[in-house]
Amino acid sequence: MSITALKQAPLREHTRILGVGAYRPEVIVTNDDVCQWIDSSDEWIRQRTGIVTRHRAPRDVSVIDMAEAASREALDAAGIEASQLGAVLVSTVTHPYATPSAAAQLTDRLGATPAPAYDISAACAGYCYGIAQGDALVHAGTAEYVLVVGVEKLSDFIDNGERTISFLLGDGAGAVVIGPGDSAGIGPSVWGSDGSKHAAIRMNRSLIDVRDYALGVVTTDTEDEADISRQSLWPTMVQDGPTVFRWAVWEMAKVAQSALDAAGITADDLAAFLPHQANIRIIDEMVKQLKLPDHVYVARDIVDAGNTSAASIPLAMHRTLKEQPSLSGKLALQIGFGAGLVFGAQVVVLP
Ligand SMILES: CC(C)(COP(=O)(O)OP(=O)(O)OC[C@H]1O[C@@H](n2cnc3c(N)ncnc32)[C@H](O)[C@@H]1OP(=O)(O)O)[C@@H](O)C(=O)NCCC(=O)NCCS
Q1: Were 16 and a residue from 87, 181, 209, 291 both cysteine, which residue would form a disulfide, CB within 3.0 to 4.6 Å?
Q2: In angstroms, what is the span from residue 48 Cα to ligand 1's centroid?
Q3: What broad class describes the main subcellular location of this protein (predicted)?
């Protein structure tokens, strides 16, 4: 057969987000609860981060349970049957199995089999990475409808007594369906990474370390040290907060501006700003640097959700549309950034 006879998938000109769903676990953890575990105060946490409460999933609620609840709402809102999905992408860093993926199990639960399914490991940028990929798959004709989920059960990977990050993090899930649109609905993605800063937010040990401790391959100098190792065997998150803070404030406003430029719009054209909910001071600083006008609605879901990593932007989008339904169909700038370090941003039309 000649090469000229080869068919390629037909390109689609426009894509858009068709519907959004969310799941917020019922257990609420207050700053006073947190202060039983670390030397801190309600006032310090509010002033330095903006966080008042965060949600945690109970032991028997998994990443897949949360993802399923958010996905079902997103599918309903989009008016799409699970069987119509051409791909299922799950952004998470807290599914407790390296394989099989959360996405494959979620696809089965939803009744979307045999849709292709895979997980994305891009921490707090995971949702924006998922949008970049879902958008590209629909554009390229590889899939007609793509489910993008951001879900985290961070409470499984924190040590309550760890003062650099545990008080920031919460659990939850958000999901959207991407499909063809009549006009442009997702601007170009501006995304990237800087692995030279991989130690800025990290796990305190690898699963190989856990195995070696369990097998007694690693020996400690004293019995005290051995006790500490055994007690804190499980890998949990730690971070160098000020390094992340400076990087987020200085570098991420530039990425957000690039996403506006790539979309061919200015801050004046925006109706909403949906930044990753990492710290209210980072959000406020980005608002200043981007010179967002007063009419732009700024999502501050962090106040009662904390930082839910890959779930934070779709959760913020869901809440924004609940509180401000008139923003539906208007332009929003979204930006995610975090461990890797990685980042991703795009302008989208709100579903
Ligand atoms: C973690 C973070 C809230 C800490 O706030 P900060 O203002 O940078 O605080 P610093 O680490 O500089 O510490 C300032 C003081 O607060 C104290 N402090 C630090 N953590 C504290 C806590 N949890 N509770 C009370 N006090 C704390 C420090 O001991 C220090 O005290 P000192 O001045 O007496 O030495 C902040 O750095 C942050 O939000 N960084 C970005 C985190 C992030 O977004 N991570 C995820 C990215 S996706």
Answers
A1: 181
A2: 7
A3: cytoplasm
